[in-house]
Design brief:
305 residues, binds glutamic acid, 2 domains, 5-stranded antiparallel sheet, alpha+beta, Beta-lactamase, 11 helices, 11 strands, two-stranded antiparallel ribbon, 12% strand
């Protein structure tokens, strides 16, 4: 297995030169496009890693998976479903072109920015600082990595330039979908996107989703199976931006990418995967990361289809 992962990293590293590191958040443009890390953990808890798997990067949209989970755990499926839908939007993650249809929950999902910003309101906490702290605690708990923290430089960079997300949050308010202060909601969202993780942390989180919320390494049930089903289904149809259909063909399992170059892959009943390669394709997915997952899927027959 280790030889396979090393071979995949060797084959896919050159894709770094063909993609583009995200630069709309200025701090992210400093990432090295040649980085590629891969880590998988199987149902027996055996971990296999290759390349730059220990490097930390900001989770960005990968954290939307846990924003959704915590909103489900805190507020239940009914409230989550009434605020955001589950259909793929067919639009980029940060679109605010909803002009062809009124902005309603049914036409956003938890994996686009609008949906994730809205779901921050369903996380319990007296203040948005507390909501964020609970999200960070959950991320540490599921990843088994107590060192996870916010990358303050990326957070400041995103906050300074995040006017599109500001527009989305105010649009949610304008359409009556959220009632809290938009800037406070965004504070939680910006901080959430700036949480740092590495491939091993993503693989451990994914492993729990792959086993109905159970941590197979300890036997502990970490969250209700029904929430794993909800999140995994959403990742399958919406997790890879508007490239989710293509990833269903190429990888064939639920996954979530982020513009920091991370991808978390959930292979139901089999394994959790973390990949990191910061150069992105046109849709915002890690170019080398998607290619690595495709090769891994072919080699280990991971597609659920
Ligand atoms: N923090 C990023 C943003 O809101 C997350 C985007 C992403 O990873 O898709 O623009």
């Amino acid at each position: 297995m280790d030889a396979l992962l090393q071979d995949i990293v060797r084959q896919c590293r050159p894709y770094g030169a063909l993609g583009k590191v995200a630069n709309y958040i200025p701090e992210l443009s400093k990432a090295d496009p040649d980085k590629l890390g891969l880590c998988l953990i199987d149902s027996e808890g055996s971990m296999h890693c290759a390349g730059d798997w220990q490097d930390y990067f900001t989770m960005q949209s990968v954290i939307k998976t846990l924003i959704l989970l915590l909103a489900l755990m805190d507020s239940g499926i009914g409230r989550v479903r009434s605020l955001v839908g589950v259909e793929a939007t067919g639009k980029p993650f940060d679109t605010f072109n909803y002009s062809d249809q009124a902005l309603t929950g049914a036409n956003i999902n938890p994996m686009v920015n609008t949906g994730a910003i809205a779901l921050c309101t369903l996380i319990h906490g007296e203040t948005y600082g507390e909501k964020f702290r609970r999200l960070l605690e959950l991320t540490r708990y599921l990843s088994g990595d107590d060192t996870l923290e916010v990358d303050e430089a990326v957070y400041r960079s995103e906050k300074a330039t995040g006017n599109k997300n500001r527009a989305l949050a105010y649009m949610l308010k304008a359409y009556g979908m959220v009632s809290d202060d938009a800037d406070e909601i965004l504070e939680c969202y910006f901080r959430a996107c700036s949480i740092k993780a590495n491939c091993a942390a993503l693989a451990r989180i994914a492993l729990v989703f792959a086993h109905h919320g159970r941590d197979v390494t300890t036997g502990e049930q970490r969250f209700a199976p029904i929430y794993a089903r909800y999140v995994n289904a959403t990742l399958m149809t919406c997790g890879m931006y508007d490239g989710s259909g293509e990833f269903a063909l190429r990888g064939g399992f639920p996954a979530k990418s982020g513009v920091g170059g991370g991808i978390m892959g959930v292979v139901p009943g089999r394994m959790g995967i973390g990949v990191f390669a910061p150069a992105l394709d046109k849709k915002g997915n890690s170019l080398a990361g998607v290619n690595a997952l495709e090769l891994l899927s072919e080699a280990l027959e991971l597609s659920v289809f």
